[in-house]
Fold:
Amino acid sequence: MSHTIVIFGASGDLTSRKLVPAIYNLMRCGKLPPETRIVGMSRTPMSDAEWRSLLEASTKKFIPEARFDAETWAAFAAGIFYQPGDIGVDEDFARLKERLKAIEGDLPATRVYYLATAPSFYEPAVEALGRHGMAEESVGPRRIVVEKPFGTNLETSKKLNACLHGVFHESQVFRIDHYLGKESVQNLLALRFANTIFEPVWDRRYIDHVQITVAEEVAVGRRGDYYDAAGVLRDMFQNHLLQLLMVTAMEAPAKYRADTVRNEKVKVLDAIRVLDPSEVLDASVRGQYVGYRHEPGVAEHSQTATFGGIRLEINNWRWQGVPFYLRSGKQMSCRTTQIVISFRQPPLQLFGGGIPGHTEGNRLVIQIQPAEGIQLHFHTKVPGAGMRLRMTDLDFSYSEEFRDRLPEAYEPLLLDVMQGDASLFARSDEVEKSWQIIDPFIAAWRDPAAPRIDLYEPGEWGPASSYRWMEEQGRSWFDICPILS
Ligand code: BG6
Structure:
């Protein structure tokens, strides 16, 4: 069956940077049928030819040079169409419907609607699709992809879910979180559930705590308007960090299927203790990089956090008593996403008792990006007299093992949407529960009575208070910048 991908927000950044390059590459590798079409809609008046040439230039820019070739592009571009229109204008939707009919002909096609617009257009677009009968599946599957942010709190996410469910069945809805498209995140499932040696120690008996860090070097740049309202909790925690936590903490599903995988993920969220806002300050630390208030679109006295560290407890048999520390920030020392499983110290200090560093527990470091890989840190005897020990590691690196570049996260996810596999997409209850967990942090951080936000210099791992906070709990952050080969 042929595919039609309808992109709302066709002239936006996401379309040119991520979506079209990903679809082009899938076509180039023969993963999508040659009769796959892209139909873009946005308000900018443009012809098919004009949009094709804009996309050609941006695709060349955003994919590696070796992947672009004029002939493949020409064949791909023949399936690209543009329909100018306003989501708020009913006649424009009627025109889009007619255009799609003309392009697809009488043959059944799988149709994917991709909401790549500003979030305020999500509900109007869904309602219009409903009014025009465009979610109806008698002539082929109809699916809808919703980008983040999925609401701004529990209440708005419920409202958006209700709107979607008024038009689409849950099985037609794909809430995308591009972190789940990353190879190294999916590999975490393989690491845990395709091997036997990790699972027996993957619990409270052996693990002291877990650290999940998403550090970015970039500043907020041109997104000041959006970011100042969102802050790091809405931008990174409610979605990407909680997804990483779920994959780290979930139980093995009985089968690798969308419903079974998502059931296990939701159970993790269910077991997380939702804090009262009065408990949040003790369970978190926040900061803002120096210079943030001069970014365009940011309020002069903004108290928005560009850095956050939070502690969550998962109250189930596997994890009770094992804190999960989640940390993310902009303008930090380096770009790295990593999960550190920090194992307990040995019960007895056999060697050189009291020598600092001796009793550190083992660590399993899962490097999600950019130096994708896994390292196991363990003590080794330093050659020579005496039992002097040092931490050494076993090191697995994707780039050494697999020579090919890793695919962009959007590629596998878009392919999954075409194939109707929702395993790596968030379900409605998952999104609502994640807001329920993050909302008290947002409320407490925004409270005018909360202490003023701590500042940090760009290039640091957050404010000094973040280190103190960990020390008070008898632990320390692992600040590891990956070595890029
Ligand atoms: C986005 C956030 O969802 O993820 C951005 O809105 C952030 O602020 C980005 O920079 C990080 O994605 P990645 O894939 O570069 O880690």
In short: The radius of gyration is 24 Å. The pocket of 6-O-phosphono-beta-D-glucopyranose is lined by residues 148, 178, 216, 235, 337 (CB under 6 Å). The chain has two domains: 2-147, 180-403+424-472.
